[in-house]
Amino acid sequence: MSLEALYLSLRLAALVSLLLLAAGLPLAAWLAFGRWRGRFLIEAVVALPLVLPPTVLGFYLLLAMGPRSPLGRIWHSVFGHGLAFTFEGLVVASLLYSLPFTVQPLVSAFRSVDPKLLQASAVLGASRLRTFRRVVLPLSFSGLVTALVLSFAHTLGEFGVVLMVGGNLPGVTRTVSIAIYDSVEALDYAAAGRLALVLLLISFSALAVVYAVNRRVWSPWSAR
Amino acid sequence: MPSSAHPAFAPRLILCISSGCGILAALLALFAVPSGHASPAREITVAAAADLRLAMQEMAAQFEKQTGHHVSAVYGSSGNFFSQIESGAPFDLFFSADVDYARRLEAAGRAEPGTLYTYAVGRIVVWVPANSPVDVARRGWAALLDPAIGKIAIANPQHAPYGRAALAALKSAGIFEKVEAKLVYGENISQAAQFVQSGNAQAGILAYSLALSPPLKDAGRFWLVPADAHPPLEQAAIVLKSSRNKEAARAFLDFVKSPAGRAVLEKYGFTIPPQPPAVPERR
Amino acid sequence: MTPPAVSARVRKEYRSRGATSFLLDVDLEIPQGFTILFGPSGAGKSTLLDCIAGVTQPDAGRIAAGERLLFDSAARTNLPPQKRQLACVFQSLALFPHLTIEENVAYGLAHLPPAERRERALEILESFRAGHTAARRPGEISGGEQQRAALARSLVSEPRVLLLDEPLSALDEEVKAGIVEDLRGWNAARRLAILYVTHSREEAHALGERMIALDAGRVVAEGAPGEVLDALSARRAAGRIRS
Lengths: 224, 283, 243
Hints:
The complex is a heterotrimer.
Chain A: H1 2-33, H2 39-51, H3 54-65, H4 70-79, H5 87-111, H6 115-123, H7 128-139, H8 141-156, H9 160-166, H10 176-185, H11 189-214
Helix pairs in contact in A: 1-5, 1-8, 1-10, 2-5, 3-9, 5-8, 5-9, 6-7, 8-11, 10-11
Chain B: H1 10-32, E1 43-49, H2 53-67, E2 70-76, H3 78-86, E3 93-96, H4 99-107, E4 117-122, E5 124-129, H5 136-139, E6 152-155, H6 161-172, H7 176-179, E7 183-186, H8 189-197, E8 203-207, H9 208-212, H10 214-217, E9 220-224, E10 233-239, H11 246-257, H12 259-267
Parallel strand pairs in B: 1-2, 1-3, 6-7, 6-8
Antiparallel strand pairs in B: 3-10, 4-10, 5-8, 5-9
Chain C: E1 6-15, E2 21-30, E3 33-38, H1 45-53, E4 60-65, E5 68-72, E6 77-78, E7 87-89, H2 101-106, H3 114-127, H4 143-155, E8 161-165, H5 173-190, E9 193-198, H6 201-207, E10 210-215, E11 218-223, H7 225-237
Parallel strand pairs in C: 3-9, 3-10, 7-8, 8-9
Antiparallel strand pairs in C: 1-2, 1-4, 4-5, 5-6, 10-11
């Protein structure tokens, strides 16, 4: 049953990190290359989950998912059930919670691409989209890996938000961090220790990958 | 051109300065609070189960008025407090929602001998928000089977006493299998209450004491589950051996045992268990 | 009369390498063939080139390539670089480090089918004597080879105008002479308008048919290279030019 929680967390983290990458690419590209002067406001909003306690986010989400909020009502009328206590609810919560871990590495990777290369691409007739696809993305490889891995690891370790909106349902919303907490609360330190060790190893491996890629221990193309 | 001289900047500048002053003043106030070493009155710290919050506040206030000792209470899950006390948390008293935790600490030598006191027996209620179409007071358990009830919040039975009681009660009523899929689990009884109060769950099995206290009192209706539907929720307190204010801690426990303390507990929905006739402590 | 290949009237405030800011204020025409844009560093040469290429926006002015209007502050026209159909080699070359030389050269031929793209890329690399670098990445070849690759990349789409921003500055004389020779040969039949920025007298002499001297944002002399260089010497003698 602790494996069930681990599997659930892995599934949640994989789904969330992929969805975030898809949503984060255009957002990060706009933040890195856009011309609107007020972009810093959006950057601040994106970074909020970094500094807000998860309980604040969880509290707002619990209210937002409830029947008294427009979001909760819309979701209910479309899907016929509430968003809290469901796997989809956790996905929505995690998307918000891990957003900065995707967007920030992407933005800094995009910004570090030599602007001369972007100009060269444009002068060679490439549209902005083609420049992004053929030049910016491949040269931001380490940023992409960092974004993917960090959002994965962060979602995997998420606790406060899940606690607030999850309802602790085995196989649905009982993630590995909740399972660890439950074991500690139930004074089953052995079970807690086992799960905690697995989580520790996964998180360590993920971070090692991030640092290896950024140190260029390995890279798909040789140095410039 | 100095920008501060520009008229458009003036209001903003004043705002900045005044808010800056406010923050400074608040910080000063924070650090200037005397720590009160000079006063003979003691400060005791109580770790209390979440369902005790209002009763504890009222008892603490009365006790302070009587003795001058200050009671500061920390509320949380009893299992959590148990782990913290095992690790040497600096509390003076522990009011557990489950007598079991208190007994285990006593067995581990963490309690002052002879201080264990069963201060109350908890009751549970089936609670629905005020706007619920379900007439819970009339239908009792059957209310939970109503299709309008999508989710039922209870405390986590794995470690929360009220969760265990809710589960036992559902089983003894013979409807556990029918509602099992509807159950969602709060970390403790307060979180279970949050789930219902926020409308994400449509019903909850909550502590009677919570249902009687302000945030929930006017927000919904409830049905009191018969006391024999689950093993008694005995709640017990101990004075901790590590306490540095044992006299004051014992005095507070005596107050809780006194008619005044018992009246407060009863007011907030706790049943006082029959006590051994001699209330004075056994040293 | 055919219109000049490029006409540029540009006003723009720019910062030279120090913190001093200058006003670039020029009005010039670039015919077919080589035109040398000559001047000390900080004279505004690169800024002018960037304005023509479209990677920098002038404060005011009008830029046209033949009959095509590229920029006009009065008409609020400003074509983005990808629509200007100019070729440009930056001082830093800006070869894409993650693509092979062949992929770099074929980059501007996205509208062609892959086989033809490849064929034309290899063909132009050969004519700049860099065919052997096709499969390698920019980081793996010499500076001279990178230079040839960058030229090939900018010319493969057969532009009418080529802007070169000190592309040979980092090379030694021998390599430089070889590349200059190849570029002359390539252009002999095609007669592109090539605006070639340099501060080297040797390159100016070797390549130029026409020369424009820029200093502190202004055109200070214009004409055949010999005449312009003489005029500059005279100015310097009069102490009116920064060395």
